[in-house]
From TrEMBL:
Gene: proC
Assigned GO CC terms: cytoplasm
Species of the source: Subtercola lobariae
Known catalytic reactions: L-proline + NAD(+) = (S)-1-pyrroline-5-carboxylate + NADH + 2 H(+); L-proline + NADP(+) = (S)-1-pyrroline-5-carboxylate + NADPH + 2 H(+)
InterPro entries: 6-PGluconate_DH-like_C_sf, NAD(P)-bd_dom_sf, P5C_Rdtase_cat_N, P5CR-like_CS, P5CR_dimer, Pyrroline-COOH_reductase
Coiled coil residues, start to end: none
Name listed for the protein in its UniProt record: Pyrroline-5-carboxylate reductase
Major localization listed first in the record, in broad terms: cytoplasm
Chain's role: Catalyzes the reduction of 1-pyrroline-5-carboxylate (PCA) to L-proline.
UniProt keyword Transport, yes or no: no
Cross-referenced SUPFAM superfamilies: 6-phosphogluconate dehydrogenase C-terminal domain-like (SSF48179), NAD(P)-binding Rossmann-fold domains (SSF51735)
Family of the protein in this entry: Belongs to the pyrroline-5-carboxylate reductase family.
BP GO terms, sorted: L-proline biosynthetic process
């Protein structure tokens, strides 16, 4: 979402505000975002609730002191985000099913839990949309995949798209593609951090201090990605622009290409996809 793009959303509740739930909440509380009524969220403990922002647009309910907290949170909500741990999802859905009004959209933020599982535990009149945000949501730079359920409408999907655009960009895909998407954007930040770690180690081995190496490498990655974002050029075009014929960068790139970096990333994402399917199968 840009600073100049006001967003209006219906009543929302979030069940489970761990790191991802809080990241989404930060987008909903951002300037220019209007949510109908207070955003009701549930936490297991007061310690978890203490991590939430102090905002009068927010109502926090504690499940450890109120066994009806989740049901109370979803009453009247048009959109319910389920952001608890995957193993907790079936019991939670059974708990809130009777409190959901017909036409409510339940949005899964629980990795590996299928739309079919959600729909099995919810009334016929309740729609399900599955999502896969990534951790840059915490700084408003997420890439979120969303998939329609069998009962959701295009209008409901568009509303959920607008919700996730408050924390970054959104890509609509079929559910069959969502696990593959998770191996790219979901796990992708870890791949980038691993590359940063490796290049930082190389810098230290060349005599730079840890602080100097961090400045060199972190700054280079941040600058390169910002240039990619602003230039309108492809990564290939920018790489060629930096790689002078017969120069030092060309020699370094040749080593990386000889190591078949492309094949390595394909193998890595294939491994992640296989694991995602194992988890989905229980």
């Amino acid at each position: 979402m840009t600073e100049h793009s006001p967003v209006s959303l219906p009543a929302i509740s979030i069940l489970g505000v761990g790191s991802m739930g809080r990241a989404i909440l930060s987008g909903l509380l951002a300037p220019g975002v209007e949510v109908d009524g207070p955003i009701r969220v549930t936490n297991r403990s007061a310690a978890s609730a203490a991590k939430l922002p102090d905002d009068d647009r927010l109502v926090s309910l504690l499940t450890e002191s109120d066994e009806n907290a989740n049901s109370a949170a979803v009453k009247g909500a048009a959109i319910v985000l389920v952001a608890v741990k995957p193993a907790m999802v079936p019991d939670l859905l059974d708990e809130i099913a009777d409190a959901l009004a017909p036409g409510t959209v339940v949005v899964s933020v629980a990795a590996g839990v299928s739309i079919a599982t959600f729909e099995k535990h919810l009334p016929e009149g309740v729609s399900v949309i599955r999502s896969m945000p990534n951790t840059p949501a915490t700084v408003g730079r997420a890439v979120t995949g969303v998939s329609a359920g069998t009962r959701s409408t295009p209008e409901q999907l568009e509303t959920v798209r607008r919700l996730f655009e408050t924390v970054g960009e959104v890509l609509e895909v079929s559910e069959s593609q969502l696990d593959a998407l998770s191996t790219i954007s979901g796990s992708g930040p870890a791949y980038v951090y691993l590359l940063i770690e490796a290049l930082t180690t190389a810098a230290v081995e060349k005599g730079f201090s840890a602080d100097e190496a961090a400045l060199l490498v972190n700054g280079t990655f941040i600058g390169a990605t910002e240039l990619l974002r602003q230039s309108g050029k492809t990564p290939e075009e920018l790489r060629i622009q930096v790689t002078s014929p017969k120069g030092t960068t060309e020699r370094a790139i040749a080593v990386l290409q000889d190591a078949r970096l492309d094949t390595l990333f394909t193998a890595a994402t294939d491994a992640a996809l296989a694991r995602a399917r194992e988890l989905a199968a229980g």
